[in-house]
Design goal:
single chain; alpha+beta; Maf protein; 8 strands; 36% helix; magnesium; ITP diphosphatase activity; EC 3.6.1.66; nucleotide-binding
């Protein structure tokens, strides 16, 4: 059994779907103090340490960054804060008139248990759209396109085949299956 530690029930549902038939996944809404750090890996590791110290059960936490080329990598590892403050509308305003819309998401999944902490990363490249599109997903999904569709225009099953979180979770899942 793995506990997903997040305040985001949508993330927890994605993880549960990803591990269906492999192991039981439970969700705990536990707030970690998010450190200021340069990389999503550092942040995920610190959050895993906090959560494991408090809960004492095998668990995963993740951290995701959105890196927009034309904005020198902004918002980077501060993507959650930017989403909470200016949201998709604010990001689209920052991108107004900018032709280079390349961006990438990076997710680090940190797994903690009695053996310590292991971190797994996933990246997906895409671009920031000119307007929000789609009704599925959450966060930046309506403004991040991979190919011709945004992540919000994809079903969870489609998104779980190519997203940054899916790639990090796939690396973790492969390790988890072979290490058990």
């Amino acid at each position: 059994m793995i506990t997903v530690v997040t305040g985001n029930k949508n993330k927890a549902a994605e993880v549960a779907a990803f591990f269906a038939g492999i192991t039981e996944v439970t969700h705990v809404d536990f707030t970690c103090i998010e450190p200021q750090a340069e990389t999503v890996e550092e942040i995920a590791r610190a959050k895993a340490e906090q959560a494991y110290a408090a809960l004492g059960t095998p668990l995963i936490v993740d951290d995701t960054g959105l890196f927009i080329d034309a904005l020198s990598g902004f918002p980077g590892p501060y993507a959650a804060y930017v989403q909470d403050t200016i949201g998709n509308t604010g990001v689209l305003q920052l991108m107004s008139g900018i032709a280079d819309r390349r961006a990438y998401f990076e997710t680090a999944v940190a797994y903690a248990d009695t053996d310590g902490i292991s971190v797994f990363s996933g990246v997906v490249e895409g671009e920031i759209t000119a307007a929000e599109r789609g009704t599925d997903g959450f966060g930046y999904d309506p403004i991040f396109a991979v190919g011709v569709r945004t992540l919000a225009e994809m079903s969870m099953e489609e998104k779980n085949k190519l997203s940054h979180r899916a790639r990090a979770l796939a690396a973790f899942r492969d390790w988890y299956i072979t290490s058990r």
